[in-house]
Amino acid sequence: MKNTGSNKHYLKLLFSLALVLLAAFILNAFFFRLDLTSEKRYTISDFSKESLMNLKDIVYVKVYLEGDLNIPFRKMKQSIQETLDEFKVYAEDNLQYEFVNPFGDEDPAIQEDVINELFNRGLQPTNIYSSDREGGSAEKIVFPGAIINYRGVEVPLNLLNNNPGAGAEENINNSVQALEFEFIRIINSLSAESTEKIAFIEGHGELDEYQVGDLTRELAWYFQVDRGKINGQPGILDDYKAVIIAKPVEPFNEQDKFVLDQYIMKGGKVLWFIDMVSVSLDSLNEEGFTIALINQLNIEDLLFRYGVRINPVLLQDIQCNIIPVNMALPGNNPNFQPAPWLYYPLLSAPYAHPVTRNLNMIKSEFVTDIDTIGSRKEIRKTVMLSTSVYTKRVNAPAMVSLKEIETSPVPDQFNEHSRPVAVMLEGSFESAFRNRMLEDLLPAEVYEYNEFSAPTAMLVVSDGDIIRNDVRITAQGKEVFPLGLDRYTQVTFGNKEFIINAVHFLTGHEDLINLRSRELTLRMLDKSKISEEGLFWVLFNTVLPPAIIILAGLLYAWYRKHRFTTR
Q1: Residue 99 belongs to a domain with what CATH number?
Q2: Distance (Å, rounded) from C-alpha 227 to C-alpha 230?
Q3: Beta-strand (E) ranges in 275-402?
Q4: How far apart are CA 412 and CA 343, in angstroms?
Q5: How many Å apart are CA 438 and CA 134, to the nearest integer?
Q6: Residue 494: which of 384, 337, 368 has the closest Cα?
Q7: Total tally of structural domains belonging to the chain
Q8: Claim to verify: residue 146 and residue 225 sit in the same structural domain
Q9: What's the CA gap between 268 and 259, in Å, rounded?
Q10: What is the overall mean pLDDT for the chain?
Q11: Is residue 25 assigned to a domain?
């Protein structure tokens, strides 16, 4: 009988093991993941899954956010690791990553070399501050970014959205929200097997290759970027997904306007960066004043027909950037001090649009405003950038003087509410040459003329300097600074991200750009309650659970004693 009972026991054990193995085998044939968070924090998009599963080679990601970090950056590091772990589920062995401490060596000279190397490779450092209970504080440099390598090509990826208008925790939360988008856009560009083309238009005094060098370098990760003149040749732009007109200063002739118009009629996308008022910075710096003059570019009729009018005014905004101003008296050594410059508005972007979601403020210089034309109702118009609610309009021509810094702005005069500076136009456009004689514009050979466009879109920005990066002449040649970097304050604004996102949006990469619409809830703790009640909740969570277990054990022992004691 004992042997029979023992055999039954072993049979039950074997049956249980067989059942577990069978269940594991069946479940292994099905792939599913459950995300129980309300905002689907750990779920990546179908577009990202497809991109990762279609990788043909290994993507190496080296993240430099490691070491002695404060709590917000530790949370950011954890989010990066969780995102990359989720990527590995779909990319499998084609995605490999590691976290590196750039300050692992204690030698200060080696640390400085590492900082310079990472900066030269394109990673932007940031400072973090920590304080102790005695009131002391310490400053440390961190590199919240990564280097992504695919088939020997390296791309830097800065992961921190450092918006000067937001707090540290909000900036990190916005950065965490954009992790999937930031990683996937780089991985997609590196692994793409075909390259689309975009072009910068030349021939009208536009910004040169150095003045848009940083943007060109960034766009080159996604597109073939060309530069050239139109020369009045219809069809010369037909092979390009989008063209960029970057701050022209000379008027367009009718032939070039016709080429642009017909490019748009065929569904082409155009990004216009137009200064309708010109201000000489050389005169302003040397003389302390200059005259703001109206630019005659001969494209006003095109833009009006497409649905907007750029006004010949300058905007002053109390929400503005600062510039260094020499406060020393004549004959004394220079004494440069920061001062707000009302002609350099810091532009805000709508949070809801995928192009501008989570963007830093946009740096501008001598910006004008845009009116939308109500009669063009078939065109959808979306304001992409605008000034603050404290804006003032100055009609051109106008005197611009540095002495204006000495006068405090009168709030009652800044009563223009959020003037549009960038507008996205979408729809079917009417040709600006409709009902016009075209014999002098068309070449001798027959060329197809379209009076209405296929559904398309364009971006009109009333400031050419938004797309311009600083350039410095050195002994080694011209040095190109990052677009959006303010060399005086060392703050990097969102100019480059805004333009890159707009190009992606216009060229039909909606799946990629829609990743920017993801929103994660920021659940911040109340710091005042932490200070007042922190000790209580620490004890509550550390002492109470084991105390409950001990009490339950004592009660159970007492129960057994009284339950089974022989009376």
Answers
A1: 3.40.30
A2: 10
A3: 277-278, 289-294, 308-310, 313-317, 320-326, 336-347, 362-363, 370-372, 380-386, 391-395, 398-401
A4: 17
A5: 79
A6: 384
A7: 2
A8: no
A9: 11
A10: 85
A11: no
Q: What distance in Å separates the CA atoms of residue 297 and residue 263, rounded to the nearest whole number?
A: 19
Residue 547 has pLDDT above 80, yes or no: yes
- What is d(CA 454, CA 460) in angstroms, rounded to the nearest whole number? 19
What pLDDT score was predicted for residue 523? 56
pLDDT over threshold 80, residue 440: no
d(CA 172, CA 166): 10
The span from the CA of 237 to the CA of 264, in Å, is: 10
Annotate 255-286 with DSSP letters as a single string.
Answer: HHHHHHHHHHHTT-EEEEE--SEE--HHHHHH
Residues 162 and 293 grouped into a single domain: no
**Residue 117 burial (10 A CB sphere; 0-12, 13-18, 19+):** exposed
In a domain, 26, yes or no: no
pLDDT band at 260 (very low <50, low <70, confident <90, very high): very high
Contacts of 501 (CB under 8 A, 6+ apart): 354, 355, 356, 359, 513, 516
pLDDT digits (tens, 9 = 90+) for 66-118: 887 888 888 889 989 989 999 998 988 899 999 988 887 777 888 888 888 88
Residue 557 confidence class, pLDDT cut points 50, 70, 90: confident
Residue 444 near residue 456 (C-beta atoms within 8 A)? no
Question: What is the separation of C-alpha 502 from the centre of its chain, rounded to a whole number of angstroms?
Answer: 10
- What is the total residue count of the chain? 567
Final residue in a domain of this structure, among 483, 500, 517 = 517
Domain around 166: 46-189
Q: Looking at the domain assignment, is residue 313 inside a domain?
A: yes
> 244 and 220 share a domain?
yes
Q: Residues 263-277: what's their mean pLDDT?
A: 96
**Positive or negative CA dihedral for 556, 557, 559, 564?**
positive
> Could you tell me if 369 and 414 lie in one domain?
yes
Contacts of residue 76, defined as CB under 8 A and 6 or more positions apart, other chains included, come to: 65, 144, 159, 160, 172, 175, 176
For the stretch 175-197, pLDDT in tens is 888 888 889 888 888 887 778 99
